[in-house]
Amino acid sequence: MHAAHGKVILLGEHSVVYGHPALAGALADGATVELQPGSGKLRVPAWTLEVSGVDGGAEEQTSIGRAYRAIRARLGLGIASPVDLTVTFLVPTGAGLGSSAAMAVAVARALKAAHGLSATDEDLADAAMASETVVHGKPSGLDHTVALKGGFGIFTRAGGLVPVRAAQPVTLVIGHTGRERDTKGRVQRVAELHAERGDEIRARFVAIAQLVERGRVAVMEGNAGELGSAMNENQRHLQALEVSCVEIERLCAIASDAGAAGAKLTGGGGGGCVIALAPGRENVVRDAWERAGHRAFVTTVGGQ
Ligand code: MEV
Are 107 and 180 in a shared domain? Predict the structure, then answer.
């Protein structure tokens, strides 16, 4: 079995696409891929989806089909293949938790093993980036970097993931809006705003970068109040960047009423998940979200 991590962005999504830093960590689980004898098909039983590794099929229409072929092409694989791949997701999909990057990395790892490729981690990252470009349009590379390497730290396009040593692991409550995240659409909207109101948007990116730095120091010092307030401020900027939505704002308000120190969307936004930092009150926030009809769970990032 081949696996890769999901991810959670604590601070800095969207501005990270423009070269600014983001604070992010790997989820223990993401996606797994199992190999069976076959002819190069990729199966996702959870979506009753099956795509072939060759061009021209009806599944050309699906982004998964095109992403899979992008991975195979990057790894230099032709049509002939002795194996089928079956993907299992261990995090909610379409939720801002990095499931597509986890799938891409796990698929690349499985193909490397199946075909005896001498691909390096950089080659696998390239293949995953090609897949993420199909799925998301203009990715920063954060998702697949964390999917591949795991860990916790500051990600920039230029520097990759630089580890941050947390004073203690950061426990987060994750709640699902019930609406699919819209990374591609929201990244496009931010690009439009950037073209229309460049000065304001660039100033917001700089402000978010300062929040990321505040968050980094807070995590290293174990200062939850400071990290929570940076998350709340980041959410206000994300709202102004038009990547929030009614459901996200509602989950943030419920978390705050339940005593969270901070709450914000995570990932692409427009739906997907909200994260809340609520030391000692994680179950209270989770229960409040569940009572309001949302799936929710508690997880930890930044452990060893
Ligand atoms: C998606 O997980 C995070 C975004 O910043 C896009 C990206 O980094 O590619 C919205």
Answer: no
Say if residue 32 is in the same domain as residue 130: yes
In this prediction, residue 280 carries a pLDDT of 97
Going from the Cα of 48 to the center of ligand 1, the distance in angstroms, rounded, reads: 27
Using alpha carbons only, give the angle 20, 271, 240 rounded to the nearest 5 degrees.
50
Q: Do residue 89 and residue 186 come from a single domain?
A: no
Give the model confidence (pLDDT) of 39-54 as tens digits: 999 999 988 889 887 6
Catalytic residues: 143
Ligand 1: nearest atom to the Cα of 13: 5
Output the residue whose Cα is nearest ligand 1's atom 10. 268
191: left (phi over 0), alpha (psi -120 to 50) or beta: alpha
Residues 91-104 have pLDDT tens digits of 999 999 999 999 99
288 shares a domain with 185: yes
**For residues 186 and 88, what is the distance between their CA atoms, to the nearest angstrom?**
27
Q: Are the CB atoms for 242 and 193 separated by under 8 Å?
A: yes
pLDDT of residue 62: 82
Q: pLDDT tens digit string along 147-179?
A: 999 999 999 999 999 999 999 999 999 999 999
Please identify, by atom number, the ligand 1 atom nearest to the C-alpha of residue 143: 2
pTM above 0.85, yes or no: yes
> Which atom of ligand 1 is nearest to 187's Cα?
10
Give the domain range for residue 77.
Answer: 2-163
Residues with CB under 6 A from ligand 1: 13-14, 16-17, 136, 139-140, 142-143, 183, 187, 267-268
